[in-house]
Specification:
Chain A is built from 10 helices and 13 strands. With 331 residues, the first copy, chain A, is an alpha+beta fold. The first copy, chain A, has an 8-stranded mixed sheet with strand order 4-3-2-6-5-1-12-13. Chain A has a 4-stranded antiparallel sheet with strand order 8-9-10-11.
Chain lengths: 331, 331
């Protein structure tokens, strides 16, 4: 152990008694998409599989917080776990665009700074959330898109994969079905998606948020939703809160949903739960927008709310809470 | 003249006396970039030419408002005028990226709705602001990027041009100079740019904002700044205000500058000028971010402020104001 770390531990030991009854809170929340699957069509086997996927991501993130790691590492690990799980619409298993390709978007934000990095429209990056983090840490930029983002991935040695990596049998079937129904859907607003995301508070009091998605099945090439847009689908600031959204991206962009929640907390002194409720059940609903968010504030309060049929989600904190749910009534 | 329009005019005639002393205000403000040219290096001929370019854009927009047109049409016309003028970093005359190409970003937002459309990383679209408007009006999406955005341009019949259209002799020289200095600049934050933008209030009380840019000279391919990001470089909502920004885009994105100004007006009841000052001289400066914004509220108040050496700008309203300025002291 390094000397500074040893000293820090000794100091913690000395001041521990004063704080023993109330250690600094840890908290993480994740989502795996809103309104994705009609509860009537969810088989017990499917439900168990989704729950296991959510639990794996939740616990991967919380383990990092528990051993003193940063919220940034925790949200990266949680999102990467869901990117690698083909059940979720991010990374492997992302939905396919009109041309039959996965086109992936992701963003990460460190509430300490704050700093942010994002990528959009990448088609060969195994873990878009890691590329978003490289943009934040290794470039002076916040957002890189399309081929330029993939060039940056090459420069940074990120893992690239062929397009077939993303094209799972289930997503190819979904695309074919969507194309058949294209006529009737053309005029409708884009439907909700299985975007994944995580927000966390670490021991040092820093907040972070991360979101990753394949967007919409059969989407127009080049369409970018809210996930990689700072303020819309992803936002974190140590002074207020961290938010990750999932739902109809265009509505989230126009309403600047993630930042607006933090603005209500900062400027109107709403609690996190009140601010989330205001956005999801008032502002978003008023315009017809469907979806949900997960959020955490600097006190470790977690809010998870949605106006869609369900939102796959999980929460865990240092007060002993650990739950996974998919629909209302914490089911 | 159609019968409903005739009837409307007659009705206006009947109620006019009550409002004659205080007609509904009209206002437009434009910018042509912040911190672009050291005042010491600005020749009188250059200054006159920039002023003429700004005046042409300002008056093109105001003429539309004056004849009862929409703020959306006014900001489109003002920005398109600057896109077509090679002095400004947007459309023809946009700065060139590391590969020697113009890569253009633009966004437009209609405060009535609100609705928004944006494009990023397009390389063959003559007027990106018109394509952004087509995204808003003819697609269910808000943001299209790169080749997908150009496919959409083709589908919609937007005017496409070869890359040489954008590559003016002056911008090729600037790129060569930037490449020579690349070593020393690599570590520095991206410098301010000559982004263009407009905000307006029309007779019907609707606000609109539009922004268009070529981004940064020698930028990494795929880099997207704040201009096409709703909430960062462009925002409009009839309930609060309309904002267009120019400066170091990454700082504007992280701070959600355009929306934050409107949030301060809505939630903390600051005046527009106070909110703009808070963002530009407090929040942005605290993080080292350089740039400025133009903004208008639903009462027709105009705020234009910057923390850079200068900001090319113009304002005109129905109270008789009409001014063009480049540096402090309204020069």
């Amino acid at each position: 152990m390094s000397r500074p770390r040893l000293l820090a531990l000794l100091c913690l030991g000395l001041i521990a008694p004063a704080h023993a009854s109330e250690p600094r809170p840890l908290a993480i929340a994740i989502h795996g998409g809103a309104g994705v699957i009609d509860p009537a069509k969810m088989t017990p086997a499917h439900a168990a599989s989704y729950r296991a996927g959510l639990a794996a991501a939740l616990d991967a993130g919380y383990a990092i917080l528990e051993r003193g790691g940063s919220s940034l590492d925790a949200v990266t690990a949680a999102v990467r776990t869901m990117e690698d799980d083909p059940q979720f619409n991010a990374g492997r298993g992302a939905v396919l665009n009109h041309d039959g390709d996965a086109e992936l978007d992701a963003a990460i934000m460190d509430g300490h700074g704050p700093r942010a990095g994002a990528v959009a429209g990448v088609r060969h990056v195994k873990n878009p959330i890691e590329l978003a983090r490289l943009v934040m840490e290794k470039s002076p930029h916040v957002l890189l898109v399309a081929e330029g983002a993939e060039e940056f991935a090459l420069e940074q040695g990120a893992v690239l994969v062929p397009r077939e990596y993303f094209r799972t049998a289930a997503r190819i079937r979904e695309l074919e079905e969507a194309r058949r129904r294209a006529g009737e859907l053309k005029a409708a607003a884009p439907g909700p998606t299985g975007t994944v995301g995580a927000v966390a508070l670490d021991r040092a009091g820093h907040l972070a948020a991360a979101t990753s998605t394949g967007g919409l099945t059969d989407k127009h090439r080049g369409r970018v939703g809210d996930s990689p847009i700072v303020g819309a689908g992803t936002y974190a600031d140590d002074d207020s809160c961290a938010v990750s959204g999932t739902g109809q991206g265009e509505f989230f962009i126009r309403q600047v949903v993630a930042y607006d929640i933090c603005a209500l907390v900062k400027y109107r002194r709403l609690t996190l739960a009140q601010a989330v409720r205001e956005l999801i059940h008032e502002k978003l609903r008023r315009t017809g927008g469907e979806g949900g968010v997960i959020a955490v504030d600097r006190y470790g309060n977690i809010a998870m709310d949605f106006n869609s049929v369900g939102m796959f989600r999980g929460a865990r904190d240092s007060r002993g809470r650990r739950d996974i749910a998919m629909y209302r009534d914490a089911q």
